[in-house]
Design goal:
Layout (H helix, E strand, L loop, with lengths): L1 H22 L13 H17 L3 H20 L3 H20 L3 H36 L14 H16 L9 H9 L1 H4 L7 H10 L5 H34 L6 H32 L17 H7 L2 H15 L6 H19 L3 H24 L6 H23 L3 H13 L6 H7 L1 H14 L3 H13 L2 H18 L13
Helix pairs in contact: 2-3, 3-7, 4-5, 4-6, 4-7, 5-6, 10-11, 10-19, 10-20, 10-21, 11-16, 11-17, 13-14, 14-15, 15-16, 16-17
Length: 500
Amino acid sequence: MFSEIIHNITENSDLVIHNLLSLFQYDPTAPMLFSSGLFWILFLIFIPVYALLKKSRAKMIVFVVLFSLFFYYKSSGLFFLMLMATSFVDWIVSKMIIKVESKNAKRALMWFSIILSLSILAYFKYANFFLWNWNQMVKGNFQPLDIILPVGISFYTFQSISYVVDVYKEKIQPTRTWLEYLFFLSFFPALVAGPIVRADYFLPQVEKNEEATKDEIYAGFWLIIVGVVKKALIADYISQFNDLIFNDPELYTGVQTLMGVLGYTMQIYCDFSGYSDMAIGIALIMGFKLGINFDSPYQSKNLTEFWRRWHISLSSWLRDYVYIPLGGNRKGTVMTYVNNFLTMLIGGLWHGAAWKFIFWGAMHGIGLAVHKACKPILKKIPDNFLFTFIFWAMTFIYVSLLWVFFRAASFEDSVLIIKNIFVDFYWNQIPQFFEARKIWCIMMIALFIFHFVPQRWADLCQQAFVKSPWILKLLIFLGVVQLVIEFMSEEVAPFIYFQF
């Protein structure tokens, strides 16, 4: 009897140890997400240790780097080694740029780093795309390479490039140690899906190593709650219907298709801005400011305004490291339009290795050029509610239709989806749709209303949360968790921008 008890305890202990160890191993079917329970358990363990080490800058950097690398390992496996290698090469190059005196040598080192970074990105992200197109031209038998795309490679590659370019332009000095640069490049809140953090903005914060105030900690907590609502509650729920439309577009009516397109328009905003809110909130609790990444983009009345409000860290990066180096608006009207077009074309290709992404970027480039060309006429139009609404509607419709190419499985599916809306649309089906998808419709209506709430109202809500008693904060948090559990799908949906 006693031996059986010992045997059972040993077996159960082995099982517990095995399960615990599996939590610390990379699982490609379940990458670590901000919306997963495991991350928050680890973060709750991380944050008190971080607080104890915060006063010692060196110890804090080592601890955060180790946690960030583990986070990336849980998100993308052994590719964390490639991240370390990339950071080491770029740091060495940045130190060499400062030491050499020849301008040509500095430029050569800069381009060496840029080409190396882009070559790695091109292999993982675009190799199959280019091989497929080459085989289409030569009528070959294309067999795709078995390439796994490292999570977040586009984001940290852009950060790496901007760092080396800024060192070359003497906007910043290289970090004293490789570990400091690795801290910047691997900082886990922004590592896998942005925001794209700029060295000239972030590294001075690392140098100062200021502790977050109590108000900043609560503000960060508020942003995390808002991000969870956007991503885990709204985006994940409305995506269930949107996916039906985009996966089998030929099976649905024009009304259903239109609702799916509007649903995805709001889904991608909630998904990506929700992740950004969580990332910014986590960083703020740690004492670091990442800056705003979304500013109610669907309030925009033209495409220029939209790209100042949407994915601001990417828009500003493309402006400073692509558009301006191409010549910006310094080489005449025609070249300004061309530079806008090329910048957005590159932005489209950055998002994905497919012609539909290139088309999406090209159409945004054309839209920006048309808006700039029409500015003299637009200035003569009265600034009243009617015209403001018309321009907003035109912008929203244009952006929403282009999201179809972003989401659909193929260019052909994109055309079919848009055709369904205009050919097979009957107004009398709208009440039937509302009856069948009541919760989905209520969520969408609420989302549209809250998206158009003035920013000062949102700021007041955040301030009220920060000043509220801790018991109210806890109740709000528990209420959000309960809503997420109530509406959650069977599996935690990955963030849309993980694929980029």
